[in-house]
Design goal:
The complex is a heterodimer.
Chain A (H helix, E strand, L loop, with lengths): L2 H18 L5 E9 L6 H11 L9 E7 L1 E5 L4 E5 L14 E5 L3 E8 L1
Parallel strand pairs in A: 1-2
Antiparallel strand pairs in A: 1-6, 3-4, 3-5
Helix pairs in contact in A: 1-2
Chain B lengths: L21 E8 L2 H16 L3 E7 L5 H12 L5 E7 L4 H7 L4 E6 L8 H10 L7 E5 L16 E7 L6 H4 L1 H6 L2 E5 L11 H11 L4 E4 L8 H9 L6
Parallel strand pairs in B: 2-5, 2-6, 3-4, 3-5, 6-7, 7-8
Helix pairs in contact in B: 1-4, 2-8
Classes of the chains: A alpha+beta, B alpha/beta.
Chain lengths: 113, 237
Amino acid sequence: MHELNLSLNILDIASAQAQQEHCHRIKKIWLEIGDLVGIELDALQFSFSVVASQSIAKNAVLEIKFVEGRAWCSQCQKNVTIKTYFDPCTLCGCYDYCIVEGKELKIIKMEVE
Amino acid sequence: MCGYCGCEQLKSESHGHHHDHRIIKIEQDILSENQRYADKNREYFNQNRVLTYNLMSSPGSGKTTLLVETIRALNPKLTVTVIEGDQQTDRDAKRIAETGASVMQINTGKSCHLDGHRINHALQELSLPKNSLLFIENVGNLVCPALFDLGETCKVVILSVTEGDDKPLKYPYMFDQAKLLIINKIDLLPYVSFNVNQCIEYAKRINPKIEVLQTSATTGLGVSNWCDWLMREETYV
C-alpha cells in the first residue's frame, strides 16, 4: 500500500479544511481504514509525521478506526466476516461473495484550534 | 507549562488565552481528489465514445509487446491511442510510435503509479478521435496502480507465466479491481512450473467475475481472442 501518498492526501484535505475554518493548528485527525486495504499502521503514522512536520498539522495525532472486512455471501444469503480477499465464506466455504465493508479510506473529523 | 495546551504560562497564573478546541467534521475519502479527476476523465471518455483500458502488471510482463501486437492486429479497424507510464525514459513510447499509433509518454519520476490528475493533463494535450480506443499502460507495479481510478472503462491485469501462479493471492487488490486477467508468455509454459488452472482458481477466489485470456505476445497466440474481447464492447458503432 502507498502510505506516503495517502499521508499527503490526508494532509491536503485536512489543511484545506483548516484554512476554510481559519484554524492555526490541527491537533488530531480521525481516520477510518478498512482491514482489507492492507495499510501498515506504523508506515502511515511515520510518513504522516514526516509530511506534516512543516505544516499546520505538525505533531497532529492520527486516531485510526479499523473497519473489519465483511462480505455478503450469495450462497448463505448472509453477511460474513472476512480477513483477506481470498478467505472463503466462514459458513459455507464458497468464494461467491460481495465485499460490503473493509475497503474504507476515509477522513472522518479533526480537532483544531 | 500549561497542562492543557502546552503553553509556557505557569500553572498558577491565569491564562488569558482562549482555548478554541473545535471538532470539524470532514467525512471525505482520502483519495477524493484523485476521484474528482477520474470522474472528469470518465465523462470526457463517455462523451467522445472512447473505450479506455488501464493495463497494469509487474515490470517485464510483456505489456508493451502485447500492446504493439494488439495495435498491429486492430489496425485499421480501430484508431488506437496509447498513454505510456514509466518512472523514466520514453523507450516504450518509441516502440508504440513505430506501429503508427499516437502515443504520449508520462514519466512519473519517483512515483510508482499513474493517477487521475496526470491522465487529465495528458488528455488536454492529446486529441482523441471519437469512437476510438485508448490504452493506458500503467507503471509496472502490482500494488499501487490498483488503488487509483484513472477514469478508465476497466482495468486489465497482465500476469506472465514466469512470475508465479500465486500472484493473485499475494497481490489481491490488483486482481479484485481488474475486469480481465491476461496470462501472457504462454509459449514459455513448457519451461516454467506455472499452473494455469491454479492461477485462474486463485484469481477467481479474489474476484469471481474476473474474465481470463491467455496470450503469447511474441508468437501471437491468443492475440486475436484479446482483440475480439476488445471489439465486443457495444459502444463501438
